[in-house]
Amino acid sequence: MEDTVIDEIDLDLIAALQIAPRASFDVLARVLDSSARTVARRYTRLVDEGAMRVICEIEWSLLAEGLPATVWIGTDPGRAPEVARTLAARADTPFVSLASGAADVFCMLHGPTRADTTRALTTELPAVPGIRTLRTEWMLRRLTSTSAWRLPRLTSDQIAALAGQNTVHRAPQPRDTPLTGLERDAVAALRHDARMPFSALARTLDITESRARRTVAALLESGLLRPRVEIDPRDIGYAVEVVLSIGCRPGAVQRLAASLADHPATRFLALTAAASVFTYGGVFRDEEHLADFLTGGFEGSEEVTSLECSLQIEVLKRYWTARP
């Protein structure tokens, strides 16, 4: 995607799609004071050139049994790229990066079953050539995700105009029954193209368009399916991406979680079964911006008792998809 130039108008479109990923081109055009043809042309160019995707983020419980683990990997000198490529080729790694600081390679691992994840961590990954050390931290609860991250570009009136367009951002609602076959087919169809028209989805699933609308509306309302924009932060002005392990006193967990989840740099936050308490993913304009954050640039920073930073040098795989 290195040949794609993303200009200010593209950034406004991306910001609008972050709020309303399934909004029609007509709606987006009205909000952005443009024409539907121009918006459609720009959207198509960004997607066709691999600069952007609009995907569906799926609740962990629908993807696999149990929760994912983060893995901080030390490699033999010079072998980090080889190890990262090997991990990116695995079907159970949603995220893989070359890193510096706490690890040479960082990844998330989520096997189909708990036993699969355990076997991968205890047997398969240690056998990968070039891996020297592994540190695993199991996630307990996702507190916020990339679907809630926003480019700070739109006015309050524009944001209000986009509110309620096809997407509900909320915590997943518990349900006593598994997904129906139709719901699973809908999830599979929308996973890589969250903007698939209801008419196309109906044809794919061999159902009526009204039933397709009802099925998707229920999945969005439940929070089990969350449409979002997938784009490399570096391509939209955020040169520095980090993963942090953050520790705090037990009594401060809820307050610090709320503060970090609301911070504009936060793209991912999870409660972790480790001494660090939180796994945090964030993006920053530059090193100075990150330095401000690490030296008390967020509310509740005085509650932090430990902090370990891993710069993401190159992301090889993001949300289950290898980077081109």
Automatic annotation (TrEMBL):
Transmembrane segments: none annotated. This is AsnC family transcriptional regulator. It comes from the Bacteria. Keywords: DNA-binding, Transcription, Transcription regulation. Residues 6-46 form the HTH asnC-type domain. The lineage of its organism: Bacteria, Bacillati, Actinomycetota, Actinomycetes, Kitasatosporales. Pfam families: HTH_AsnC-type (PF13404). Gene3D superfamilies: 3.30.70.920, Winged helix-like DNA-binding domain superfamily/Winged helix DNA-binding domain. SMART domains: HTH_ASNC. The keyword Transcription applies.
